[in-house]
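Hello,

Our lab assistant flagged a job as stuck in the queue for most of the afternoon. It eventually completed. Since we weren't sure the result was trustworthy after the delay, we are filing this so someone can double-check. Below is the sequence as submitted and the structure that was eventually returned. Let us know if re-running is recommended.
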Amino acid sequence: MPISTLSGIAAIVLYIASLSFQSHAIRTQNARIKAGPAVAATGLAAIALHGISAWLLVVRPDGYHFGIVQVSTLILAAIALLAMITNLRRPLAIIVLWVFPLAALALLLSLLIDSDYPTQQLNAGLAAHVLLSVLAYSLFALASLQAAFLAYQNYNLRHQHASAVMRRFPPLQDMEKLLFELLWIAQILLTLAIAAGFMFVDDLMAQGLPHKTVFSLLAWTVFSVLLWGRYRLGWRGNTAIKGTLAGFALLLLGFYGSKIVIEFILGG
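-- returned structure --
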């Protein structure tokens, strides 16, 4: 059995174990909690094995394989790692309960579904563009999940719903602070990724990627306006939530839209 498959199966088992530990901790503790030792150990081990499996699926002897399923599991590995780091820094265990199942599912699909998408040879500049894009998309995905939690928290506070789940959330101000921290870092990475793309991709039109570039620039503009509004005008609440989700939707349309067109429509 290939190492990618063995490490992938082991990662899925460890994801399930980490989720079990985390769910038990949330059910039995009243206070807001960070990841405990068992959650951290199994979660980090799962992410490491996930990363190994994803890397071996993407990096082939004849080049890089960027099939939609394979690159998605690499992105989910990055999202899981960022979620765990966030959870270790702050008591936001609820994020892991959403990210880990998605990571395990993406990993399972990558082990079951192969792709005929051709491998590519990348120079250092293109490799930097891909790496920066993966990190930026991952951080924006995590920020969007954070925005969804913030929307849920806002809704419950406005309607005075004091549920057991609500007690697991940090204060609203801390949630918004974390959201904009993620957005700032992701925006810097996206800026670098776009710059690297313009510098090192020879002909975007010839590669069938103009709409990916357009949507990425639109998303960059949305996030830039949102961050400027936060800094200059103090935007928060629903404005921050809607801006984050709108920008991420544009990134999804650009990235997965282009992947679907190239891999399944033009490739078919």
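-- support follow-up --
The delay was a queue issue, not a problem with the job. The result is valid. The helical segments are 3-28, 37-58, 68-89, 94-112, 124-158, 172-200, 210-233, 237-266. The two ends are 30 Å apart (CA to CA).
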